[in-house]
Structures are given as structure tokens and as C-alpha cells.
């Protein structure tokens, strides 16, 4: 893989008079594990919405794997290789765990064009779904409705749906939110193991997790990028400490 | 796995037997008419559930597609002809066409928006049925002579038994086809759209296209159902596109339970029984239907199918006794309350109409006088026994694990 997975140029997002994103520049090379941190209300989730095509930016350009999105929405973004897990756990509650993954696998680049997959079960879809199922460690919960899973399991399934969709670039919005230290560590290990060879852009509040996981970190404060760099450089950066780490994290 | 397959096969045998056996045992006009009405509503309710249960789309205008399919089939039969057994295909294709057009307008959003648009479209079709008499035949509707089609193997389909054979066969074939449809990945994707459309969009499928596909399929089977009614009564009337018909199928699906495949079929059977059999002996049938509907929505949202599942779960060998007693008390309480309500309603109606009819007699066979205290005593004691049972049921609640406990 080469080139940039995500390129943002001068992203401005206004809701009414409020400016949430103010000229964001971001470049995530393909294959990088990149973390996005920042205090509450910095605009991190809004930025994710912009990258995934869910919200159209007021100004600025979004390039996904070299193709400009031009506000064409989430479906085009996913075709360009963007997969997403949500801040609020987002699974198909009344479908079984395995069926959740089968629905996602239908959208993998290898399966997407096979329209007959919609009418007939496909062995290759089932195979991919089963592999993701064991990757995320939910083998024992195969036939459980997703709505009956525990919280950590649902987060794992949420990640699994993004993985099964075959996305090259994953946007993970606070995958460890609401977890205790043990669960969070396991989740990060799971993400590290399952996203080999893919690009990951992750919003995270758990600083230990971020500094152990990411190759580069971008700090967003009040809608603007304050610093981008390797974890050690970010830890040492005076502006970041003032704006964020010093605030009690 | 093998036992599950056997249970599935058993269900279909049972379904086919319910459609065919009564007609074979009692091949009289009234029975066949009643069965044909049931079969058509079963197909309509199952097709409705492709939208409500599978895709999560609440429609208030589903009968419009059944009725439009029936009118198209009637015109086709009168002008083009062809063998009668293939006529439902014409109705189905017409229904699917109208469903597709309506779906283009309605499927952008689910929930209230979809419901309101279908309500509006349903009203439009119902209004058109009266204002475009050239196509809808005005007050008289569009009649057909079902014996006038191309005969098949010596059958002219004029006789009611032959017509019912066509209807029964189409009922079973449609049910099998719809069941197969609900087993496809497309239907699973429709489930996913029902549960979380934003997530489906993030995966790369337009939720709207899935909804549109399912609405079109549902309208196809609705058109078939409408044509089955047409074959039965030999006339397509403006009533068949009315909002009342749309409400009927909604009520049937909800009473039966939208969570399982056969639930709406059970609801259709109950509803036809109420509106034909009970309506024949009691003036209060609409009241019973309304009370049943409210009771199901409030106390058993999974419908008849959910009640059956809860019962089966409680009565299997290894169920904890507390759960079993809890369910049995619940069923008993409901039975006694039903007796109380029926007694009170019948006596009340008799008492009310005594001034018009001159007789204050309820329950024709027993001839109970509404002014005498006997009937009211029965109603009161049934109500109190029901309440007593319900109280007992609550005592088992703490022991049972109340997860499956929406069986009333």
C-alpha cells in the first residue's frame, strides 16, 4: 500500500453560527495506526462524520485513497474503502451475531458485485463471516441476538462488522469508551491483532491506550489541529500539554 | 439440526392441511366461501409482514396494492382472458408495479414518515376508486365470470370447489415463496435496515433500495391476495382498496405476531373467524376485535405466535414448575376475563336493544334475560375468578426468570 488513505484539506464545518471545525488539515498514510485525541467538544466525532461522508463539510476537500469525496455521502465513502465503528454501539440488535457479520460481509469488495449473493447463501460470505467471528472472539455467541450481548461483546461485534465489510481504512470512534481497564486493554489488543495491514484512525480518551497503540497522534482542540506527530513528540509538545493533557487527563 | 428441519416440515404439512382438509370434509358453499376469504387474508397478512416484521415498515395503505392488483386482473381477464389459475400472476405483477411506484415516494424514510405517506397514498387510491368509475367500475365494481377463461384439463372453474382449489393452491405456493424470501440474504439485509439503517448505509448499501425491494415484493404478494379474493367473489369492488381493508390486514398481522413467519397467518384466521363466524351470531364482534387488539398490543406484543411460544416453552418437560404455573395462571385468568367480557357485552347489547326489538334476550340458545341477575352474576364471578388467578400468577413471578414472560 502506498499514498494516503485519508487526506483532509481545509475542512470547515459550521452548524448555524457555530464553527465546529475550523480549517482541519490531516494526512493519514495508508497502513498507519493514527489516533485522534482532544478534549470534549473539540469536534472529533464531527470530523469522523465528515470523513465517512455522513455530514457534508461547509468547506474543504476530503480525499479517500486518492479519490475526492465531494460530499457524495456514506455509501460512496464506504465504496472507497472506509469502514466505521460508532461511538454509540451500533449493531443489528435483533439479528444473531453471525447474521450481523454476514450482512457486513456482503459489502466486502470481493462480494459486493455478486448480486446473486442477495438471493442465495454464499459459502464464501459464510467463510469470511466465520473467520471474523473467531477473530473477534465471539465464537461461543454465534447464534445469540446481538441485542442480548454484553457491552464489551457488542463493542467487539461493532468492530467485527467494520472488519467484515472489508474496509481498507477503519474509523474507530472511542472503541474502549465505558470499559474498565482490563476490558479496554483487551479491546486494544483485539484491534491491534485484527487490523494488521489496514489503516486505522481512532478516537480515544484512554491516554495509555493511545500512546501504546498509535504510530502517530493528531491533537484536535476547538476544531483545529494543534499538533501531529509521534507519541513521544506529542507527550513533549508544550502546546498540547497546555491545551489538553494539563487539563486533568 | 435434523429435528429443526423436521419441525419446519411439520409446520408446512399442518399449514397445508388447514387449508385443504376443511374444504375436503365439508365442501359446502358457505364453508368454501369462508375458507377462501381466510386464505386470501392469510396471503395478504403474510405479505404485509414482509414490510412490517421483516423490514420494519408500518404501512397504512397495504390493501391498495391488493385492490389495484385485483382490478388489473379483472380487466385483464375480461379483455384478454387466459386460464383462471394463472390470473393471480397478473394481479401480482400489477400489484408489484403499483407498489414500486408508491415505494419510490415512500421509502426514503422509515417510521412515521413512511406510515404517513402510505396513509396518504391509500386515501388517494380509495378516492380514485370512487371518482374514476371508468376503471374501477363505480359502485358496482368490475365483475368477472370466472368460468369464461380458457379451460384447463376439463376444469372450467365455475364450480366453487374448483375455484377454491385454485385459491388454496395459490395460498400455499405464495406462503412457501414468501417463506423462501425471508430466508434470503436480502431479507436479512432488510432486517438490518429495520434494526439500524445508518449502519447499513455506512456499510455501503442504500437502505432505501432495500426497503423499495421489499415493498415491491410485498406488493406482488398483495396483488396475488387481491386476485384470490376476486376469484372467490367474482367481482373487484372499491371496498377492496378501502382504508378499512388496510386496517384489517394491519390488525391481523399485529394480533398474530410480526416476529415469526406464521404469526400473521394465525392472526388472519382469527380475524376472519371473528368477522364472519362471530359476526353471524353476535352484534358485538367489532367490540371483541377491538378489545383483543388492545389486549395483544398492551399485554402480548409478540402476538398469538408469542403466546404459543411462551406456552410451548412453559409446557416442555424440563421447564421450572414456577414458570409453568405462572403461564397457566395467566392463560386461565385471560380465559375467565374473556368469559366475563363476553357475558357483559352480550347482556349489555341485549339490554340496550330491548327497546328496539322488544326482546331482552342474550345468547339465543340459552335465552338468558338481560334484566334477570343470573347472567350478570356469571359475568361478575368470572371476572373475579380471573382477577384471583392473576393475583396467584404474581406470586410465581419472583421465582420465574421473567425474561420470556410477555405471554400476557
Quick structural gist:
The complex is a heterodimer of chains A (249) and B (408). Chain A has helices at residues 44-51, 74-79, 97-105, 109-112, 123-135, 151-164, 181-194, 207-213, 231-236, 238-243; strands at residues 4-15, 18-29, 33-37, 59-64, 67-68, 82-85, 169-173, 199-203, 216-221, 224-229.
Secondary structure topology:
The complex is a heterodimer of chains A (249) and B (408).
Chain A: E1 4-15, E2 18-29, E3 33-37, H1 44-51, E4 59-64, E5 67-68, H2 74-79, E6 82-85, H3 97-105, H4 109-112, H5 123-135, H6 151-164, E7 169-173, H7 181-194, E8 199-203, H8 207-213, E9 216-221, E10 224-229, H9 231-236, H10 238-243
Parallel strand pairs in A: 3-8, 3-9, 6-7, 7-8
Antiparallel strand pairs in A: 1-2, 1-4, 4-5, 9-10
Helix pairs in contact in A: 3-5, 3-6, 5-6, 6-7
Chain B: H1 2-25, H2 29-55, H3 62-79, H4 87-106, H5 111-131, H6 133-136, E1 142-143, H7 160-182, H8 185-195, H9 197-203, H10 207-233, E2 235-236, H11 243-256, H12 263-281, H13 285-299, H14 303-315, H15 321-357, E3 361-362, E4 368-369, H16 373-397
Antiparallel strand pairs in B: 1-2, 3-4
Reported by name, the CATH topology of the largest domain in chain B is ABC transporter involved in vitamin B12 uptake, BtuC
Going across the major beta sheet of chain B, what is the strand order? 1-2
Percent of residues of chain B in helical segments?
Answer: over 70%
Run of helices and strands of chain B: HHHHHHEHHHHEHHHHHEEH
Query: What topology, given as strand order, has the largest sheet of chain A?
Result: 6-7-8-3-9-10
Structural notes for this entry:
The complex is a heterodimer of chains A (249) and B (408). Chain A has one domain: P-loop containing nucleotide triphosphate hydrolases (Rossmann fold, 3-Layer(aba) Sandwich), CATH 3.40.50. Helices cover 35% and strands 25% of the residues of chain A. Chain A has helices at 44-51, 74-79, 97-105, 109-112, 123-135, 151-164, 181-194, 207-213, 231-236, 238-243; strands at residues 4-15, 18-29, 33-37, 59-64, 67-68, 82-85, 169-173, 199-203, 216-221, 224-229. A six-stranded mixed sheet of chain A has the order 6-7-8-3-9-10, sandwiched between helices. In chain A, strands 2-1-4-5 form a four-stranded antiparallel sheet, covered by helices on one side. The two termini of chain A are 35 Å apart. The mean pLDDT of chain A is 88. Chain B contains 16 helices and four strands. Residues 399-408 of chain B have low confidence and may be disordered. Chain B has two domains: 15-265, ABC transporter involved in vitamin B12 uptake, BtuC (Orthogonal Bundle); 306-397. Chain B has helices at residues 2-25, 29-55, 62-79, 87-106, 111-131, 133-136, 160-182, 185-195, 197-203, 207-233, 243-256, 263-281, 285-299, 303-315, 321-357, 373-397, and strands spanning 142-143, 235-236, 361-362, 368-369. In chain B, the strands form two sheets. Chain B has a two-stranded antiparallel ribbon with strand order 1-2. A two-stranded antiparallel ribbon of chain B has the order 3-4. The longest helix of chain B is centred in the C-terminal third of the chain and has 37 residues, at 321-357. Chain B is mainly α and 408 residues long. Chain B is globular, with a radius of gyration of 23 Å. The A-B interface holds A 52, 54, 73-75, 78-79, 83-84, 86, 90-95, 99-100, 102-104, 106-107, 112, 117-122, 125, 161, 165 and B 184-186, 188-189, 191-192, 194-196, 198-206.
